[in-house]
Amino acid sequence: MNLYQSYADINIKLPQGKARYISKGNAGIRIPGVPDPECRRMHYPKIGIYAGSGTSHSWLWFVDMFDRMGFHAVSVLDAPAVRSGRLQQMDVLAVSGGDTVAIAEALGEDGARQLAAFITGGGVYLGACAGAYLVMNSSKPHLCHFNFAAVKITNLSKRLPTCHGMPHKFSIAYGCGHIFHPVREAVGLRLTGVPPFSSEPALLAPLYGGPGMLAPPEAQVLARYDHFTDKTVFLVDKDLAEETLISTAAALRVPMGNGQMYLFGPHFEHPHYHRANRLVANAVYRDSGRNPDGRPPVAVARDALELPASESANFIRSLRRELSNSRIVAAGFEMLPVRWLIGAKVYEPEKIRVFLDAMWRRLKPLEKRGRIWARAGVPDLLMADACETTVLLRRLKNEIDKGSDTDLIARTLFHLLQRNTMRFFELYFQTISNNLTP
Amino acid sequence: MGIKIDALKCINCMACEMACSYHRDDGFAFLSACIVVYRAREKQDYFGVLLKEEEFLKVARPEGLEVNRIGEAADPNKKADASVKPMLLREGCDLCEDMDDYGPMCIAICPADAITLE
Amino acid sequence: MEYLSTDKIIVIDLATSKIEETALDESLVSEKIGGAGITKHLYEKYLNDDPIVIGTGLLTGTTCPASAIGLITAKSPVTGKLCHCPIIYKVGIEIKFSGYDYIVVKGVSDNPVYLWIHDGVADISDASGIWGKDVWESTDSLRKLMGDDLIQTMVIGKAGENRSDYAQICYNYWSSPDRFGLGKLFGGKKLKGLAFRGMGLIEVADHENFVRRSFEILKEIKTNVFMTKKGIAEIASDIGEAGIKEWLEPIVHRHSADYFTPYATNTVVFLDEDPKRVEESKVAEPGVLISDIPALLAFKKLGLSAEDTGRALKACAKYGIDPAAVAELSGKSSLKEIVDSFDGLSGTVTLKGKGSFSPWCPLKPIFNDFGLSGDAAEAETWWERRQAVAMIFGIQPVFSVMCPELSEENMLELAGIGTELDLTQEILDRVVADLLK
């Protein structure tokens, strides 16, 4: 059976109120039926994925992972949503990669307070790469509000080592020093056998700027960097890379109040690393327990309405038309010698299609449902933004052909893509999850 | 070892794109190929071949080969974020390492022998 | 129809703007195979609506060598008979990857429209902005409007809009195999053309064996004598045209092929740029792509120089008029007079063949003799059959008359592996017989 299918099967039963139990000792076992002291009842979690300012596109990897595994009570949150307290409705918050400082700045002190309350109240925090750096103690502006874990970063240095390749991907300034990235791509990890990471001894996961970590006393080390692979790209001397990473922590479980923070250096949520994905899912099952009696969750948004079948069909048809128009233009940008520096991040043209394709792939499943669930006005806003996206893309193409500066259009476009993709997934998960509860 | 492309031998037939995409998708499409015929200058009869590798983009033009590093900062004077995530849509060339019967599919399928292994 | 197919037929009524989509039934493929076998069936189904049927071959867009073409099936204004015109270059495959195997266009629009077919979406769009533009301007406008230089088009020029009997449907910027005046049909429906673009994926039943067999066939093809040759002059020379290579060579720029067609059947000549230039030309429209050998030879016979022939062909492509008809009917021998004859061109052309398939494709074997004795009647029967089979499977027609390695047996075998349908020689014979009757 497909790895994701076993999780999807469980995630069909849980919201139906069917009892499933998970061993506290070994998260790899799902025991149906009679509970025992070593097990706790599994819970179908409400998951928030942060996709607001400062994120790159890798939050979509969390979306893909949760979607394939049948975790459909998902909300995609921006910074205002976090600041306004939406986290308190969630069981899990996932923060993936991006610009750590920009994320911290967007969330601000209010966001930090909400996040702290969420975790100490029993929430599960999944932080990968930038999401991991975010909650580590730091005196840096903006980051200083998020001092939740006294993790030492092993790839932080006052003096930059010699860069042996990819200078544009090598380092960022961090306070008085620099975070440098010794390697990129797949690295080998050794699991420590601490639940929930006890189902296998080793696996691979991709590193794209995430930390090597030294655990604080209260934390459990779940995985360590063990070896490099033939796919690993070295940005520093190999000896230095080994010294910086090997045997340091790649995944930590850090308690905070009643909750847990899972901090990942590599991207365990990357869609090509299924075994790593499984460990994340196990972590979610093990520790998300803000709804201890196992009741199925209510619809993700109480104010979502079901659209009539004909309106739903028209909406999907129109959205398909516009997404197709956008994708066609975006496909033409691939491999063009153009890229944009927006903030501190480089945006390549392919990234446009990452957002568009994430929506495109989900049109068929939406069509199959027959009826869409959405908050009032959201379908119209989605359509308006989808049309605007096509207009901007065509204008961008025109300007590129003329050799004009396209930074402003690109900035507007990526902002629009981020917003529209978030809105789309709000509608998508509302539709999917509203078909789950009895 | 890598792919070498002679753009002057190329006849713009796109078989390489199809074969590469098949290697990744097990179906017939052009979506996922890391080798792409550049054919956007149809009236000028100007065509060549682009190959995406892990770190580099090889541009085989009729007038010669150009190799560009992928993901360099748009403004070389500004420091770019070091944690740029790679794209999923087109992976870099892996020389079809799992296709023992054919070796690199683009080489095997090119009817003009414009693509070779160097 | 799960394999080698988009599983979609679309029927577009230009009068009512109604668009109906149906699935392609497997039983239809089992009975009619594909390409012209099915377009003819659809034509007959919608006969009362004077349809134009655009389709793809069963193997179009696969790893079968030369699986490049789509086709247009309609009643020719020139011959009055049902004809099948190949859709070549990269346009044929784009139809399938845009999401449809077959497109039926019926009815007459009140206002000029074009069809924008993209990723399983069919839009009837207002063509008032491009009605009146020539073929090149029209394709440029559509590509600019959609924001993509790789959009493939089938458009008419002024000849089609004026409903000339010799109006051609042109593909992107170039003349096509349309000898049948199909451009007049488009003009009569106020249909400026179709634009295609898609990122579809075609599933294959037993993809490993399909690809393995494709490579085996390709390996055999690569031993053929034509693999050392390229371009239209070599073809013309082989079919008996003396001196053509020397005549054309001074203006030849490059040769190119239709999708996965091992022989480069298209030659671009440069008229306003150094033909030896390899860098991208700074001239926006330096020359013209030629795939039409009979038309090329017809202009040469009128005494035109190679350069003037190129300019005449370019003018025909822009105007959207059949260059072979122009060469035959204009009665002129200077470039200016030839171009001036477009408007109001009339007369009866001599169309070789039986009128079902386009004589744009030379009516004899090229580079290989296919075991034919040289008897004219035998060659004619052979050619008709070869074209029919090419139209059914989606094989580039010129390549099909030069490549014995692409046998019916090989095509049937690939079709069977790719679809898991039992497609026999008997079925193929029946479909061919139906097309040729």
Give a verbal description of the structure.
By secondary structure, chain A is of the alpha+beta class. Chain A has helices at residues 3-13, 59-68, 79-83, 100-120, 130-134, 238-245, 274-287, 309-331, 350-360, 363-369, 378-402, 407-433, and strands spanning 20-23, 30-32, 39-41, 47-50, 74-77, 92-95, 124-128, 152-153, 156-157, 171-174, 177-180, 183-191, 202-207, 213-214, 220-228, 233-234, 249-256, 259-264, 304-306, 340-342, 345-347, 373-375. Chain A is built from 12 helices and 22 strands. Chain B has one domain (3-71, 89-110). Chain B contains 2 helices and 6 strands. Chain B has helices at residues 15-25, 105-109, and strands spanning 3-5, 35-41, 46-52, 56-61, 64-69, 115-117. The model of chain B is unreliable at 78-82 (pLDDT under 50). In chain C, helix 7 runs antiparallel to helix 16, helix 10 crosses helix 11 and helix 10 packs parallel to helix 12. The two termini of chain C are 28 Å apart. Chains B and C meet through helix 1 and strand 2 of B and helix 7 and strand 12 of C.
Structure at a glance:
Chain B has 118 residues and is α+β, with helices and mostly antiparallel strands. Chain B has helices at 15-25, 105-109; strands spanning 3-5, 35-41, 46-52, 56-61, 64-69, 115-117. In chain C, helix 10 (293-301) packs parallel to helix 12 (323-329) and helix 14 crosses helix 17.
State the end-to-end distance of chain B: 6 Å
H/E series of chain B:
EHEEEEHE
In this structure, how is the largest beta sheet of chain B organized?
4 strands, antiparallel
Strand content of chain B: 25-35%
Low-confidence spans of chain B: pLDDT under 50, at least 5 residues? 78-82
How many strand segments of chain B? Answer: 6
Low-pLDDT residue intervals, each spanning 5 or more residues of chain C: none
Helix content of chain B: 10-25%
Largest interface: B-C, 34 and 49 residues
Structural class based on helices, strands and sheet pairing of chain B? alpha+beta
Q: What key attributes describe this structure?
A:
heterotrimer, B: 118 residues, alpha+beta, 4-stranded antiparallel beta sheet, two-stranded antiparallel sheet, 2 helices, 6 strands, 27% strand, globular, C: 437 residues, 5-stranded mixed beta sheet, 14 strands, 17% strand
